[in-house]
Amino acid sequence: MKKILLLCMLALAAACARPTTHCVNPLTYTDIPDNDVVRVGEDYYMVSTTMYYCPGAPVMHSRDLVHWRIVDYVYDFLEDDDVYNLRNGRNAYGKGQWATSLRYENGRFWALFIANDQRKTYVYSTPEIGQPWTRSVIDRPFHDASLLFEDGRVYVVWGNGEIRITELEPDLTAVRAGGVDQVLFTSPREGYNLRAEGAHIYHIGDWYYVLVIDWPSGGVRTETCWRSRELLGEYEPKTILQGAFDGRGDGVAQGAIFDTPRGDWYAMMFQDHGGVGRIPTLQPVTWVDGWPILGDNGVPVKEFDVNLAPDGEDYVWASDEFDSDRLALVWQWNHKPLDGCWSLTERPGWLRLTTGQLATGLPDARNTLTQRTVGPQCTSAVLLDASGLKPGDFAGLSAFQSNRADIGLRRTDAGLELYALRESPQWGPGRTRTRVQNELLCVPAEAETVQLGIRYDFDQDRAWLRYSWDGTDWTELDEPLQMRFSLDYFTGYRSALYCYATRELGGHADFDWFHQE
Prior knowledge:
Layout: H1 2-17, E1 21-24, E2 36-40, E3 43-47, E4 53-54, E5 56-62, E6 69-75, E7 97-105, E8 108-115, E9 120-126, E10 134-138, E11 146-150, E12 153-160, E13 162-168, E14 181-186, E15 192-204, E16 207-216, E17 222-228, E18 236-241, E19 244-245, E20 248-259, E21 265-272, E22 278-288, E23 291-294, E24 303-306, E25 332-334, E26 342-343, E27 351-354, E28 369-372, E29 377-385, E30 393-400, E31 404-412, E32 415-427, E33 433-444, E34 449-457, E35 462-468, E36 475-476, E37 481-482, E38 494-501, E39 508-516
Antiparallel strand pairs: 1-24, 2-3, 3-5, 4-25, 5-6, 7-8, 8-9, 9-10, 11-12, 12-13, 13-14, 15-16, 16-17, 17-18, 19-20, 20-21, 21-22, 22-23, 25-28, 26-27, 27-39, 28-38, 29-34, 29-39, 30-31, 30-38, 31-32, 32-33, 34-35, 35-36, 35-37
């Protein structure tokens, strides 16, 4: 008996001594929406939405669920068409890759998502993260879809308000002829601003669970769980997470639930957070009467301890000295890049952007290189050498979204100018849109090299443009950009490095470094 008691005490002491990782929400404080998470052994992989940015569908890795690193992208670009080449007035703003479902089954990772500009569903797979992904295209759009592998069959659960289930071929290349294709359940219509979308389906124990987001009238975005003992049976709903969070009126909802090897359960849910974007939070999960209840009895929590050992640091944004011959994974291009028009080797230690397609302005400029901003406050800065610009060329740094601000150098027939501007969309009848510019600064350049900066404050959703000719004395413009998370772009603000031509091609701009703090 004494031996048994000793063993129990030792086991309890060992359990108490297990290291934990302290979680403070929001995680990373940057734009990582539409999360889906899958566990493979002791490794966790998360995918997110980046829409029109390329490469797309970033895959992040973690072992402690708190610190995440970008390790791969599912694709380089979706299509080589006018949309992704920003030609003939076409673009994928607010569209592109949405809400990827990530699963690991039969020794392969599977990623399925809709591309709203193409009105198609894309399926990618790879045996190992970091290896090439193969793809198939289904000529049918499955909105906010979730994959379920079940006894050799494959289903996709999708929809808005009316949640549907459609069976795919076992290799996920097409809809299965004669397979299941029906409504799974319909959410209530009365009293909701947003009805059941962002589906995530699971088969856990004796139950099938479908997690969706709702938005009750007069309430906040809410996570609702529907469950049934039969896949095609009758589903019952329950609210599992609801409440304003972190001093904002926005709720926390949409995402994945998953377990750890020790049997603990967690959820990754995001919150709309203004200009910085839609930011992830980790929530504990407690099983109550067969329901996964998130947070603290269904209320989002700010901080808690995760029963996993600390491992690594975040790598979803970073400074860059451009001293490698490969572009760091934290960078994404606005739409598909012109690969022959950028280089990290033509001038070692610098990023060179060369104009290869005429543009009317930054929104339709090719080879604009972007990186996430981070809250609650951050600064981005670059060193720009504009000596290679041709007349009609623009180069600089932008607080990039639909409503944006740029600061940089432009070459006119009279010489180089330092300029700054704000540009906002203006909507007219029939959803027509024009761009309205407000020039903030236009002075002759003191040199061909200048340091440019942007100071972001996401508590106020304001950004201030800055510049320095010597790197010591900085001038900050008085008029800030009032940042807005607008649905026509549907992404958080990014710092963007750009060089574009309006008159002739072949000019270039060099960037020595990018620093974000």
